[in-house]
């Protein structure tokens, strides 16, 4: 590990994919942030999923957007929650819909409200219903209206009562009629009177009688 740490960045770049694939997690953890940032995307993608978990939070934060975008879906799915939390917003924006789709609900739960800005509309639209439950209330409350409207109707249906209750009035007023129609009655019943008053006439018109009764019960 000491020998690896002593390598110049140019030497790191010169390493082949087979050499990179042969690194152990302890060796990977011993590298400096500058060395990690020098990895070529193909070389980084060759590292095993278990080995990649050896990267510390500072090393993950040092990854470039190109490197993050080059990770395989298996590598993304294998990242620890602490590593997910260490990603910069630009790195999250660089993730493809396939990579986002590989994230577990536990990994998504690690995201902070600051990182929420890095979630693209395409990424949010690609979230499966099983993933939605992992989004923290702080993250949801931080979503812009354009991000919010990117959620599929199925995703809105999958929101928990706690998640629905986290939305602000401006966010509630931004939901599309399709999204509103997909809201569960239990979720609507959990909203405050202030939140209920935020729904527009068009949104209310998209609701069923059961939804209306639940909202204003």
Automatic annotation (TrEMBL):
<protein>
    <submittedName>
        <fullName>Heme utilization protein</fullName>
    </submittedName>
</protein>
<dbReference type="Pfam" id="PF20080">
    <property type="entry name" value="ALTTAQ_rpt"/>
</dbReference>
<dbReference type="InterPro" id="IPR045395">
    <property type="entry name" value="ALTTAQ_rpt"/>
</dbReference>
<dbReference type="InterPro" id="IPR032675">
    <property type="entry name" value="LRR_dom_sf"/>
</dbReference>
């Amino acid at each position: 590990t000491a020998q690896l740490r002593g390598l110049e960045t140019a030497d790191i770049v010169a390493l082949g994919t087979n050499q990179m694939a042969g690194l152990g997690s302890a060796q990977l953890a011993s590298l400096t942030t500058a060395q990690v940032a020098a990895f070529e995307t193909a070389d980084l993608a060759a590292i095993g999923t278990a080995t990649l978990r050896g990267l510390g939070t500072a090393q993950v934060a040092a990854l470039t957007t190109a490197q993050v975008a080059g990770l395989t879906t298996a590598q993304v799915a294998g990242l620890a929650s602490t590593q997910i939390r260490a990603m910069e917003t630009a790195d999250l924006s660089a993730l493809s819909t396939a990579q986002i789709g590989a994230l577990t609900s536990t990994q998504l739960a690690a995201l902070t409200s600051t990182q929420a800005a890095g979630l693209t509309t395409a990424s949010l639209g690609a979230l499966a219903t099983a993933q939605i439950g992992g989004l923290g209330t702080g993250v949801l409350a931080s979503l812009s209206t354009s991000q919010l409207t990117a959620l599929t109707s199925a995703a809105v249906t999958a929101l928990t009562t706690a998640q629905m209750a986290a939305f602000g009035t401006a966010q509630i007023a931004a939901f599309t009629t399709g999204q509103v129609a997909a809201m569960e009655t239990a979720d609507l019943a959990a909203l405050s009177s202030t939140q209920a008053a935020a729904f527009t006439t068009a949104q209310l018109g998209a609701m069923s009688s059961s939804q209306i009764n639940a909202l204003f019960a």
